[in-house]
Design brief:
- By secondary structure, this protein is of the alpha/beta class.
- The chain is about 30% helix and about 25% strand.
- The protein is built from 15 helices and 24 strands.
- The strands form 5 sheets. It has a 9-stranded mixed sheet with strand order 5-4-6-7-3-8-9-10-11, sandwiched between helices.
- Strand 10 and strand 11 form a beta hairpin.
- Helix 5 packs parallel to helix 7 and helix 12 packs parallel to helix 15.
- The radius of gyration is 29 Å and the shape is elongated.
Length: about 500
């Protein structure tokens, strides 16, 4: 008997949930039988409704069976608050059916018969049952409720597949039992969860199973807003943009600070990442603003993720005007309980929107504080992934980092992130004649010769002004150590 068959082609549906198609590995397989599970309040019904309103059409109508005790009108009253809710689709492309009376008998055969009758009459392309978990509770009096529920799910799965309907069962499960036969029947298993730590609530989704395609493994944070659910998948690590040789002038970016380009060996190599570290008030944000303004002068666009404060006229009128004109995009970070993946998603979307070539993150200290506590534990690893993703887009990145000014500690970042960047500039304070003076040094420019001088600088209405070498003030530091000690300009970092 010849069992050979041609390779089946599975059509994938766009879910309408930002980020979810990427996590699914390209979309939702059509005619799949799926389970959306998780504890109460984690967003299961919202996820189901968002996908339903995105997918339902007159040619592919949806049936939403409500098994809950509350009437569908009550549920719809709350779902109407979301932007995805389309009143015109009700009773046209989408129909709600209440199974509460059928469930009350505890007879799952009766419930299944009602679903079959409605499906045969309506011919839907999408079927939702919410919450099928309550069916198990209603049938517990039969003594063999677990077997009955398993048979119910198996029969429903076979029927929905034969009718070519994409099906979702929504259920409240608090514990994760991979051996549960109900889970093994499903083609796809969406597991939602939420955790509370201190004053923050973090929601995550995991695709535990999706037959026929590779999904992104792990937990992915998501946020529920008036727009609905937005899933923040780990930033895609594309092929790194090809870097030009650092020697040609056209491969270097001007920093917008006089004399700094010369100290860096001709400017910052295009596509590099730069860490500007220094104590509070040393001028890090002013340097970051100058970097973006200089890019605008060269016809480039930029993006800034400002965690300290939104750029204002204290950093220069030019950057405010560029933001107002749309040549510099600003990532809003006023929401709480952020994740690094969320910021990376917002950054990359803004980079693509305005075709930005320069990106500023100001600062890493504020970035960490904006994260939900649960994300701070792996901040370093997540930041490494984000920097790599940004590099793959070809942008040049400048990050600032708060640095405690201690003469016996030459760390460049409290997170041990200096290794992530191609270049480092350190800004410090020194005491000269009972006055605090600012100094800076170029610590590292990977693959390029650069100055190792420690130079004085000051800030005026025109920004950062770099002055003479600190060597001219020899003896005034009282033996305190300096960075990159020496005055030659031939340092080279690999």
């Amino acid at each position: 008997m010849d069992m050979s068959i041609g390779k089946a082609k599975i059509h994938r549906l766009a879910t309408g949930v930002p980020g979810l198609d990427e996590v699914l590995g390209g979309g939702l397989p059509e005619f799949s039988f799926n389970l959306i599970a998780g504890p109460p309040g984690c967003g299961k019904t919202t996820l189901a409704h968002q996908m339903m309103f995105a997918l339902a059409t007159p040619e592919r109508p949806a049936l939403y069976f409500s098994v809950l005790g509350e009437p569908p009108l009550k549920m719809l009253r709350y779902q109407q608050q979301f932007d995805f809710f389309d009143l015109d689709k009700l009773n046209r492309s989408i129909r709600f059916i209440n199974l509460a009376d059928d469930k009350a008998s505890g007879d799952l055969d009766k419930v299944l018969a009602r679903i079959i009758a409605e499906v045969e009459q309506r011919g839907p392309g999408l079927v939702f049952v919410d919450s099928f978990r309550s069916l198990a509770l209603a049938s517990q009096g039969g003594g063999n409720a677990f077997i009955t529920l398993q048979q119910f799910v198996q029969n429903l799965g076979v029927l929905m597949t034969s009718w070519q309907a994409t099906t979702f069962l929504i259920g409240e499960y608090v514990t994760e039992d991979d051996a549960n036969p109900v889970f093994t029947v499903a083609d796809g298993l969406f597991w939602l969860r939420q955790s509370a730590e201190r004053n923050s609530v973090v929601r995550k989704i995991e695709i535990r199973k999706m037959r026929g395609q590779a999904t992104l493994a792990g937990l992915h944070t998501f946020r529920i807003s008036t727009a609905g659910i937005n899933v923040f998948a780990p930033p895609h690590l594309g092929v790194p943009a090809e870097r030009k040789s650092a020697s040609p002038t056209e491969a270097r970016l001007r920093m917008g600070v006089k004399a700094l380009d010369e100290m860096m060996g001709g400017g910052l190599p295009r596509g590099h990442s730069l860490l500007v570290a220094g104590p509070s008030g040393s001028g890090k944000s002013i340097m970051a603003a100058a970097f973006l303004v200089e890019g605008a002068r060269a016809g480039e666009t930029g993006v800034i993720a400002a965690f300290e404060q939104r750029p204002n006229r204290s950093r220069g009128r030019a950057i405010v005007e560029l933001i107002d004109s749309g040549r510099i995009g600003v990532i809003s970070t006023r929401v709480s309980e952020l994740s690094v993946d969320e910021i990376a998603t917002l950054l990359i979307a803004e980079i693509r929107r305005i075709k930005a070539t320069r990106v500023v993150i100001d600062s890493l200290s504020g970035f960490e504080l904006a994260l939900a506590p649960t994300f701070r534990e792996d901040f370093r690893e997540s930041l490494s992934r984000m920097v790599s993703a940004l590099a793959s887009t070809g942008v040049t990145v400048l990050m600032t980092s708060e640095l405690e000014d201690r003469y016996d500690d030459l760390r460049f970042s409290p997170y041990g992130t200096a290794f992530l960047t191609d270049s480092i500039i350190v800004m410090r304070y020194i005491e000269v004649d009972s006055q605090l003076r600012r100094v800076l040094a170029v610590v590292k420019v990977r693959g390029s010769a650069h100055s190792s001088d420690l130079c004085l600088f000051h800030i005026d209405d025109d920004g950062i002004q770099i002055g003479q070498m600190l060597a001219d003030y020899e003896g005034l530091l009282g033996g305190r150590p300096t960075l990159n000690q020496g005055s030659s300009s031939g340092a080279r970092d690999g």
